[in-house]
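Case study B.
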Amino acid sequence: MGRSSCYEKARTNKGTWTKEEDHRLVTHIRLHGEGGWRSLPKAAGLLRCGKSCRLRWINYLRPDLKRGSFTEEEDELIIKLHSVVGNKWSLIAGRLPGRTDNEIKNYWNTHIKRKLLSKGIDPQSHRPLGQPYNSNNIAVSRSLPDHEIPALQNPRTPEIADFFRHDRSESSPIEPAALDAEEHAELNLNLCMSLPSTSAPAANSPSSADRTAVSNSTSGRGLLTPEMVEWR
DNA sequence: AACTCGTCCAACCGCGATTAG
DNA sequence: GCTAATCGCGGTTGGACGAGT
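Model:
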């Protein structure tokens, strides 16, 4: 379609946000709630594109963000979730309250990858380095292409569906102990069994609307009420 | 003190999915 | 059903900063 990037528009600021811009954005969201990103910059008096505003809010200004360094428990949880869903950062973030997909993605690329490599583990396959990929091995972890994500909701795998269905607001961090090696292997087994063998969508795969529901519920980024938003 | 290099992370970008008209 | 607008995601970039020389 040849759409031009919103960042290319003239008279929009780029780069690091100033305190003034942050304040304007937070104040606007506090008054009007989250959403309507396209019209937000104008309404808030910001010379930014909506996309930039959304990113700034989600990754930095949201009041429920945890920030600070990751705990060992979070590390392990990220590794385990990554071994199941691959680079689906928003899904992983949905299981780590207070953490953003961008934060987790950065943390993965700068810390966890190196940590795994130093242990002789391939960060992509989660298998020992040099070990050939074997699609029949139930312990083989994989990165799921987008079209396979709906399988997370496949009725044949209720525990996985449930695992990813929880809204962030009502979820608590999964205790790493709750996902021991056996359960983890089972999770992989169930996933492998439920995934279509080809890239064609499975007959019983959920509709796109269902997929949206999964995405929305797992990202847990619903509208915040003004009371929830506090200027920091 | 000045320079180089490596690391970290906020922000940019492109694109697919979804929604609205 | 089609098209354009909008949203959200994942990959990538680049600037700030600290460590080393």
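Residues 134-161, 165-179, 185-232 of chain A have pLDDT under 50 and may be disordered. The remaining cases will be described in the next quarterly update.
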